[in-house]
């Protein structure tokens, strides 16, 4: 994942956000956080959301609700509290 993000950053520089991003270290930090989150959550968001919910596992239902709620809160904070930075 980290390599793919870095490759995309060099092939299409404007694709990963505002041009004032301080550099590729944000990609490194983001990749590490995704990896840690995947490990802590015992799977990725799509694995829980597609396969786990379809199987009806409680862990995947809770994980998917947590992912969606966190995403909604993040969008709200970025758009309304931080003044529409993204």
From TrEMBL:
<feature type="transmembrane region" description="Helical">
    <location>
        <begin position="61"/>
        <end position="82"/>
    </location>
</feature>
<keyword id="KW-0472">Membrane</keyword>
<keyword id="KW-0813">Transport</keyword>
<comment type="similarity">
    <text>Belongs to the TsuA/YedE (TC 9.B.102) family.</text>
</comment>
<keyword id="KW-1003">Cell membrane</keyword>
<dbReference type="InterPro" id="IPR007272">
    <property type="entry name" value="Sulf_transp_TsuA/YedE"/>
</dbReference>
<protein>
    <recommendedName>
        <fullName>YeeE/YedE family protein</fullName>
    </recommendedName>
</protein>
<dbReference type="Pfam" id="PF04143">
    <property type="entry name" value="Sulf_transp"/>
</dbReference>
<feature type="transmembrane region" description="Helical">
    <location>
        <begin position="23"/>
        <end position="40"/>
    </location>
</feature>
<keyword id="KW-0812">Transmembrane</keyword>
<keyword id="KW-0997">Cell inner membrane</keyword>
<keyword id="KW-1133">Transmembrane helix</keyword>
């Amino acid at each position: 994942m980290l390599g793919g993000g870095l490759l995309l950053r060099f092939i299409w520089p404007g694709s990963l956000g505002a041009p004032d991003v301080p550099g590729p270290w944000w990609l490194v930090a983001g990749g590490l956080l995704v990896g840690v989150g995947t490990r802590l959550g015992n799977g990725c968001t799509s694995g829980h959301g597609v396969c786990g919910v379809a199987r009806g596992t409680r862990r995947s239902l809770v994980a998917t609700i947590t992912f969606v709620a966190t995403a909604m809160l993040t969008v709200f904070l970025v758009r309304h509290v931080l003044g529409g930075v993204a």
